[in-house]
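protien #1 (seq + structre)
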Amino acid sequence: MYQLPENDRLALAQRLVSLIGVAAILALTACAGGAEQTPMIELTLDRPQGNTATVTLGDGRALIDVTDQGGINGLNVRLVEGEWPAEIVVRLRLRGLERLEIHYGDVTLATGRSSNDSPDPPLILSVVDADGRVQSASPSADIYYPDILKTDDGFDITLPPHFFRDNYPSFSMQWIDFYRN
């Protein structure tokens, strides 16, 4: 049986170790490249004293849970890393929703919920045009309408489909509770 000289065996072993190392790096890179990046979302409240805002991520959804004791406040949400989940729901733990404004890019959506059986206020869409003028109207397309669901402990507000059409880095909300303190 033929044996390689000692120098050739050492060189072959070094090449084999290098080849295994490169294969391991390629395998790890492929695994990391295919993994979805969890978004990192930063939350701040306009009036944080005694109030809370937390985000829970899962199944392509972000649930932002807000407790506001005063009834007049604002939430600022910024995507720090990754991509927005497919659905964003803001849970406002309020008794009433006299006024709600959602801002992103040059768009402002303003609406609210009736405190009794009367009709809800209409949704008003405001957009800042290229000349800096604000244009307001009632939107003609459902793509602008947030879904606002009354729950036992407040309101679940799902951002409208229009928010996801462009790559907005942030959005904000301001609200007024009918029963504010």
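ok now protien #2
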Amino acid sequence: MIRLFVAIPIPAAVKKQIGTACAVFPAEKWTPATNLHLTVHFIGNLHPDEIAPLSAKLSAITLQFDPFTLFFKEVCAISNHKKSMIWIRMQHSEPLEMLASIIAEVTGSEPDFSFTPHITLLRLPKDTNHNKKPNLLSKIPVQPFEMEVKQVELWDSVPVKEGRKYTCLQKFLFGGVKNAP
């Protein structure tokens, strides 16, 4: 089984800017630049034989979309009963919400929570849920940015000693053009 999700890649210049901002707190285990992405839809575990049909569906979906722009909203601390995280939250985007909704519908894997476009910067240990650390870390100096979205990518997620390693398996350019990884 392969653990899959659909992601929007983060441009190199934005990754560099995020890395510089995170360096203010060097002791934290920030998300590696190679793993930075915006999740459009988490698919879950699939058998390798199911990837080709999924790819065909994603290619058909991307035919329906033109490029669009996402805008930075804020850096924020998110906490629930399971964990605390530091996110870059993006502004509301109708094209992105429509894309996420169509992918969920077509893949038959509806999310159990409302879609919030974000980039995860840091996952904190469970014991940090009720202290001031998440709010302090959310003050990192990320400068507002925008990013043009021209494609989505199918990524896999593999557990490694340091957490998870994400790898792009396939790219789907808007307008239906599919590139090899």
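The radius of gyration is 16 Å.
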